[in-house]
Amino acid sequence: MRAQFVLSEIGVGLRRNLTMTFAVIVSVALSLALFGGSLLMSDQVGAMKGYWYDKVNVSIFLCNKSDAESDPNCAKGAVTEDQKKDILSDLKKMSVVETVIHESQDEAYKHYKEQFGDSPLAASLTPDQMQESYRIKLKDPEKYQVIATAFNGRDGVQSVQDQKGILDNLFTMLNLMNRAALGVMALMLIVALLLIVNTVRVSAFSRRRETGIMRLVGASGFYIQAPFIMEAAVAGAIGGGLACVFLVVGRYFTVDHGMALATKLNLINFVGWDAVLTKLPLILAASVLMPALAAFFALRKYLKV
């Protein structure tokens, strides 16, 4: 009988404050969808770091005849065969180096034509204008500075470049976007909590006669509070369900179908469905607990039970 009463009061409360209940549902859905999206973004950045950092190279670009005329680092002239042998020998002796690949001027020219063959500059370039280089795979990508210190400023070396630096800029941008999403999520969460508190208080005020009678007949504090807490929990659960739908639909249409980013950006290792599905229980739990706790603390002060 008591359970039936509580359930009936939940339905009455939700219908009585339909507009505010709808606002709570939408706020909870959007804030938790952003929360889930931020968690997935963190997983995506972590997966991309593991994938790309394992593939980054350090490149040692060697001086050519054109550099000798224009680049201060190559003031002593183009790299000689002896200098190339010394550089390669020193690289192979370094414990941080895993593999070394030599790219000749002809190979560099061929790769450039493959990538930028349509550019106007490509038509005017010749192989002797391209730079020879050593492509170095490090055992630990964080050890780039060891290579830079050893070879920067060395005779025959034009520059030492680390691809990891380019990736770091990309990941910094992604992390900033993720923090911005978390900031919006926090704002939406605050709005949702305020709406929940106000909705519960309006509901409690509109039923103050019933709660007063229940106090007089000796009803327990939890028994009086239960319908209001359950109303907030139900509204939150609906919002959490919508947030889960947003995440699943968003993943489906942006990565797998619709925009089909997995096909168009095949160089990016997107997180799988397992990562999405593991976030859904967390979102549902938060959608129930957050409104229920907000309602509980709001009622303790308001009803003084």
From TrEMBL:
Family annotation (InterPro entries): ABC3_permease_C (IPR003838), FtsX (IPR004513), FtsX_actino (IPR047929), FtsX_ECD (IPR040690)
Compartment(s): Cell membrane
Domain ABC3 transporter permease C-terminal: 184-301
A Pfam family: FtsX_ECD
Ranges annotated as spanning the membrane: 21-41, 180-200, 221-249, 280-299
Keyword list, A-Z: Cell cycle, Cell division, Cell membrane, Membrane, Transmembrane, Transmembrane helix
Residue span(s) of domain FtsX extracellular: 56-160
Any GO CC annotation of this UniProt entry: plasma membrane
UniProt-listed GO biological process terms: cell division
Membrane topology type: Multi-pass membrane protein
Assembly with partners or alone: Forms a membrane-associated complex with FtsE.
Family as reported in the entry's similarity comment: Belongs to the ABC-4 integral membrane protein family. FtsX subfamily.
Role description: Part of the ABC transporter FtsEX involved in cellular division.
Name assigned to this protein: Cell division protein FtsX
Species of the source: Streptomyces sviceus (strain ATCC 29083 / DSM 924 / JCM 4929 / NBRC 13980 / NCIMB 11184 / NRRL 5439 / UC 5370)
Organism lineage: Bacteria, Bacillati, Actinomycetota, Actinomycetes, Kitasatosporales
